[in-house]
Amino acid sequence: MIRFPNTLAFRLTFWYTLIVIVLITIAFSASYFSLKETLHQNMKNDLAEGIAEFQSLYKNEGLAGIKQEIKREEESEEEQKSFSLLLDKNGTQIYSSNLSHWELLPENQKIIKQVFSTRKFVFQITSIHGTEYKTIYDLITPDILLYTGESTEEMQDILALLSSVFIGMLLLVIPIAFLIGWLMAGHAVKGIKEVSRIASEIEKGKLDRRVSVSSQGDEITQLADTFNGMLDRIRTLISEMKEMTDNIAHDLRSPLARIRVISESTLSNDNTPQEFKSAASDTIEECDRLLQMINSTLDVAEAEADTFQASKQRVNISQLVQDACELFEALSEQKGIKLVCRLENSCYVHGNIQNLQRMLANLLDNAIKYTSGNGRVDVILTGTHQNIEIVVMDTGMGIPGNDQARVFDRFFRCDQSRTHDGCGLGLSFSRAVARSHGGDIYLNSSQDKGSCFTIKLPIT
């Protein structure tokens, strides 16, 4: 059993060749039948013109002239190609050409009577010895009928020659079309092969390799660009993972060092029971901080993976923001910060209420934490037919321009924020929640002038 290659290049070549064959066959068929119909019509017209010539000849020279013309045509042509037969009203033969080859020629008495009665010619196709003839019955005088016909052998030869030319051309075109199709397919999949080759090298650890494709068409170029973009994204993620690991190591080192110092101090000194309790309290506090960092990291991972689909419900986001503002109102008053809420009523989203609460709480907590006394924090909720926007705007210290692109990264903390409690996961969690709900968070900040965080969520 022949097994053909299961490659894209071969399939493209096969379909290209098949389409070429089909198109050529359609073109030949149209030409063949058009030529056949034209030849048939021309032969029919020739027979009708012959009748007209005999009618004119009878007027000028009478029956003798017609007989002379039949004899002359018989001598100038092969007797197997045409015949002529004169008949009277009773179907009796008056005169004919040599009919030795036409022994099986039928004389249809019914048609003869029909022509004499209707005075209209009858065109007929007759077959003798496997050869097809076109015949016509028509009157040359009111009392004389001419029955004449011609062989279609020449026409059949022309059509047979055309068929032979088509078969020869098809046998020549198939290998040429296959070769051209193979070259075209090879050129078309060149870019795909390049992507495959680069992917194989990347699999071996060469992450810096990129696909370079030119003049391959928009589809291949788009594939190469998408593949390169994916590689850049993978490389960025690996870089971020390495940076996150470094940040985790840096942030975990301090509480672990303090736990070790507390433990060593407790073991090396003759402490009172109260000092033991103080050391244990400090140890628990540092452990709690470590646990908070680990739990927050897991929460961010769950939010990014959107594992809360089953617990999502229709949430009144207007009421949620109102509750959050009331919760942080006491803290803002304690710091002397004016907290202003401007909310539209009856805005709903489909989401996880606990995660949405934590997202709002993180933004409000940061806004109040990094805003000094006599400052201001504005919370604005607006809605359209498609989205809602929650704006948390403060007049705090702001974020430097070179840090704004990184504030949503895990464990990233600006230099001015390291004096405050935290582990650098609040904004990462907030963005993960917004994106898991089909939205996002955007930042606009100026150092020493304040920050503006805008949450966009699709409305339901």
Please give a structural write-up.
This protein is of the alpha+beta class. It has 3 domains: 8-163, 2-Layer Sandwich (Beta-Lactamase); 191-256; 308-458, Heat Shock Protein 90 (2-Layer Sandwich), CATH 3.30.565. The protein contains 10 helices and 12 strands. It has helices at 8-76, 109-118, 153-188, 190-203, 218-268, 273-305, 317-335, 353-369, 401-404, 426-436, and strands at residues 82-87, 93-96, 122-128, 131-141, 144-151, 313-316, 338-343, 348-351, 376-383, 387-394, 440-446, 450-458. Strands 2-1-5-4-3 form a 5-stranded antiparallel sheet. The chain has a 5-stranded mixed sheet with strand order 7-9-10-12-11, with helices on one face. It has a two-stranded antiparallel ribbon with strand order 6-8. Strand 11 (440-446) and strand 12 (450-458) form a beta hairpin. Helix 6 (273-305) runs parallel beside helix 10, helix 7 packs parallel to helix 8 (353-369) and helix 8 runs antiparallel to helix 10. The longest helix is centred in the N-terminal third of the chain and has 69 residues, at 8-76.
Short description:
The chain is α+β, with helices and mostly antiparallel strands and 460 residues long. It has helices spanning 8-76, 109-118, 153-188, 190-203, 218-268, 273-305, 317-335, 353-369, 401-404, 426-436, and strands at 82-87, 93-96, 122-128, 131-141, 144-151, 313-316, 338-343, 348-351, 376-383, 387-394, 440-446, 450-458.
* Helix-residue proportion: 55-70%
CATH architecture of the largest domain: 2-Layer Sandwich
Largest sheet, order of strands side by side? Answer: 2-1-5-4-3
What is the CA-CA span between the terminal residues? 60 Å
Number of domains: 3
The CATH homologous superfamily of the largest domain: PAS domain
